[in-house]
From TrEMBL:
Organism (species): Actinacidiphila oryziradicis
UniProt keyword list: Isomerase, Pyruvate
GTP-binding keyword on record: no
InterPro entries per UniProt: DinB/YfiT-like (IPR034660), Maleyloyr_isom (IPR017517), MDMPI_metal-binding (IPR024344), SCP2_sterol-bd_dom_sf (IPR036527)
Source superkingdom: Bacteria
Transmembrane segments: none
Entry protein name: Maleylpyruvate isomerase family mycothiol-dependent enzyme
Signal peptide per UniProt: none
Family matches, as Gene3D superfamilies: 3.30.1050.20, dinb family like domain
Record has Isomerase as a keyword: yes
NCBIfam families: maleylpyruvate isomerase family mycothiol-dependent enzyme (TIGR03083)
MF term (GO), any: metal ion binding
Location of the Mycothiol-dependent maleylpyruvate isomerase metal-binding domain: 12-144
Length: 230
């Protein structure tokens, strides 16, 4: 997809998340999310953090500079999620909305000449950071379990996410993903074929380590384990 189109999808996702947060109560924030071991507050705290971290990549790239996504690396990131999850619903809502505002300003400022700018994140370029934020935003908005689920993911997002998640395919087999609600199909790896059929969004959710909204058909055998996040 053209970076400007991805940016448009990202800004739509910002608006969706703001709407979902409008009625968040303290009780709802403390409830479990769709991610085992995390409350909704944990997911929202993570969304805030990764939103700011990736927007920072853009701001520095505009100046021709590179910086780590998180000061203090993964330990600082994890500590910030835990600390942020203790906030009230009103505090979480303001924090996420502020982060979305900062990210929206950063991404809107990017012009055609900026997408190839180098960044520290994954030693990539700015368009790769935008795509990463698109994935993070869509997946974690569904994780927050506030009324938006993986079956709401667009076919464009699913196609992009599946290609990104291809390294998770199990070793020693040729994993074939076949959408039952459209023409999409993916094949990863080599070896004996293992075919998984289901709705495109459900196949994507499974590859992302999330529970699909609908059934997946592995031909009568249990679905194989997947590798780590790429």
């Amino acid at each position: 997809m053209d970076p400007a189109e991805v940016r448009s999808r990202v800004l739509d996702g910002h608006s969706r998340l703001r709407d979902l947060l409008s009625g968040l109560s303290d009780e709802a924030a403390r409830r479990p999310s769709a991610l085992p071991g995390w409350s909704r507050a944990h997911v929202l705290s993570h969304i805030e953090g990764v939103c700011l971290a990736l927007a920072r990549q853009a701001r520095y790239a505009f100046r021709g500079e590179m910086v780590e996504p998180y000061d203090g690396g993964r330990p600082a990131r994890d500590a910030a999620i835990e600390a942020g999850a203790s906030r009230t619903a009103a505090e979480l809502r303001r924090a996420v909305e502020d982060a979305l505002g900062e990210a929206g300003a950063a991404w809107t400022a990017a012009g055609p000449q900026d997408w190839a700018r180098p960044v520290r994140y994954r030693d990539g370029d700015l368009v790769a950071v935008l795509l990463s934020w698109w994935r993070e935003l869509e997946i974690h908005t569904a994780d927050a379990d506030l009324g938006y689920r993986s079956d709401g993911w667009t076919r464009e997002l699913c196609g992009h996410a599946l290609d990104f998640l291809a390294p998770r395919a199990p070793q020693g087999v040729r994993l074939e993903l076949v959408a039952t609600d459209g023409p999409e199909a993916r094949s990863y790896g080599t070896g004996e074929p293992y075919v998984v059929r289901g709705a495109l969004a459900d196949l994507t959710a499974w590859m992302a380590g999330r529970a699909p909204s609908g059934p997946l058909d592995g031909g009568g055998t249990p679905l194989p384990g997947l590798g780590p996040w790429p």
